[in-house]
Design goal:
This protein is mostly helical. About 70% of the residues lie in helices and about 0% in strands. It is globular and about 70 Å long.
Length: about 500
């Protein structure tokens, strides 16, 4: 029946939702069982490869700014445990259960047009922001290489960093413009080498410092209140786990079922992220340096340090590729006729164009990593809450797949003109809660923050309000398909 449904969608009721040939992973249609390519270990390997990317160094350095080694380990474990668990529930489980692209699943919450707004905002903003951070890190690393090889001193905030960052963006565009095969080929080479570098950093740190010495070192900013600093470190790591939200649903879609989607997140996104970030903390504390590109030469010497920096530089490019590719698949599949008809190289430029501008503000972007994570969490924490309570509590884990693809006027998820304003109101309330507790602009916490964090209250407010608004306004009007049982006879529910 699913084969007939796929053919029907591409002709009459569902329109041209695909448009990328026979590769089911490149469009928004539900994947058939034969198209699910990952089991437990396959998905675990993918997650581990993502988790040990160069952003782990930035995460560890950011945590080391606030707390010492022991508290850093505790904050990383607590923070990632909370957020990885939540993103493992949503968007992973709905995507794995039905084989749907994660932003398609959000049509049940926000409506078809509302979900498109969420998709465009989250895909473009996250891809641009992460790409800019990684490109600037690429620039910092190569400037350090040039300084040490040629004996010069180039500014870490000057034009050279920006121009090298632009080179990283352009190089990413050239690779992505060729399509997904080139992305996979590049990442397959870089990821194992990066794992070796992380292990090497750990070994070199402990050849210079014993554990007792490392544990006694103060944070990079020892003047802050210890309790508040510890809670900020926890918040940084909650936000770090939430940063996976824009991508993990589409990855989970390729797994063979909910179990294969849920548990590998603990081996990959949690365990590997924790290990890599902890190594970053140790290096930052041992060297008293917050910039990861400045660690390699003091740890490994000039020759090995320069080689490591070059590898890390190209690893940043692969991380940009993974971010950009995930965003483009989402936009290509669910962005409507305009984006589906856009040539792949043009779509790449649309995603990476903002990053090419941001690299010319290296200090504002690179030196404000914590603020950058907050701007992600302020949206993702309430989004994740609304999606979780909607799918698990209000719908009892059941979606009507055909209605996800029908025009708004004919879908039970049509709401008002394809937009569920109450879901957006819940997300906005959660975001406002976050901002009141931790100002994302100044990064100054409120008096309540040391007892609550910011992401957790934002999550709770958004989720609670969504339940209240849905039961008070949406369900009584018969909108959203909350009270209608799945149509088993249609052959589209599982």
């Amino acid at each position: 029946m699913l084969d007939g449904q796929r053919q029907d969608r591409t002709t009459t009721e569902l329109g041209s939702a695909g448009g990328t040939g026979d590769d089911g992973t490149m469009n928004e249609l539900p994947l058939l069982p034969a198209e699910r390519i990952w089991g437990f270990w396959d998905y675990s390997a993918v997650n581990i490869g993502l988790a040990v990317a160069t952003w782990a160094f930035l995460q560890g350095a950011a945590v080391a700014y606030y707390v010492g080694a022991v508290q850093a380990i505790a904050s990383i474990v607590i923070g990632y445990a909370i957020s990885v668990f939540l993103v493992s529930l949503a968007p992973c489980l709905p995507s794995a259960k039905y084989g749907i692209e994660q932003f398609v699943g959000l049509r049940s919450v926000f409506g078809s047009n509302g979900a498109r707004i969420v998709m465009v905002v989250m895909s473009t903003l996250f891809a641009a922001a992460w790409s800019a951070v990684l490109a600037i890190m690429f620039g910092h690393g190569l400037v350090n290489v040039i300084d040490n090889v040629f004996g010069v001193e180039i500014s870490q905030t000057g034009a050279a960093v920006s121009l090298l960052g632009l080179v990283a963006v352009v190089l990413s565009w050239l690779v992505l413009a060729r399509g997904p095969v080139s992305v996979e080929s590049v990442c397959r080479v870089i990821a194992p080498v990066l794992v070796l570098i992380i292990v090497g950093i750990l070994v070199m740190v402990f050849t210079k410092r014993s554990w007792s010495e490392l544990a006694s070192l103060p944070p990079l900013d020892p003047e802050s209140d210890p309790h508040t600093s510890f809670m900020v470190a926890i918040e940084l790591n909650i936000a770090g786990g939430f940063a996976w939200w824009p991508n993990v649903g589409n990855l989970a879609r390729l797994t063979r079922g909910p179990r294969a989607a849920f548990w590998p997140n603990w081996l990959g996104l949690f365990a590997a992220s924790v290990a890599a970030a902890v190594v970053g903390v140790f290096a930052a504390l041992a060297l008293n340096l917050e910039d990861p590109t400045e660690w390699m030469i003091p740890l490994a010497g000039v020759v090995l340090g320069v080689l490591a920096l070059i590898v890390i530089g190209f690893a940043n490019v692969t991380a940009i590729l993974s971010q950009g590719y995930a965003s483009m698949v989402a936009l290509k599949g669910g962005g409507g006729k305009l984006l589906r008809g856009t040539p792949w190289p043009v779509l790449v430029a649309f995603i990476l164009g903002p990053a090419a501008i941001l690299v010319f503000f290296p200090s504002a972007v690179y030196d404000n990593y914590g603020r950058f994570l907050s701007w992600g969490a302020i949206l993702v924490a309430p989004l994740c809450a609304v999606q979780i309570v909607d799918f698990f509590l209000l719908r009892r884990g059941v979606l009507r797949i055909r209605d996800l693809y029908l025009p708004s006027a004919r879908s039970c998820y049509g709401y008002w003109g394809g937009v569920n304003a109450f879901a957006f109101a819940s997300v906005a309330a959660g975001a406002a809660t976050y901002a009141l507790l931790l100002n994302p602009v100044t990064y100054i916490p409120s008096s309540l923050f040391p007892y609550t964090t910011a992401s957790i209250p934002a999550f709770l407010v958004a989720g609670t309000l969504h339940v209240v608004l849905t039961k008070t306004f949406v369900q009584p009007l018969g909108l959203g398909g909350y009270d209608r049982r799945p149509r088993v006879a249609a052959g589209v529910e599982r």
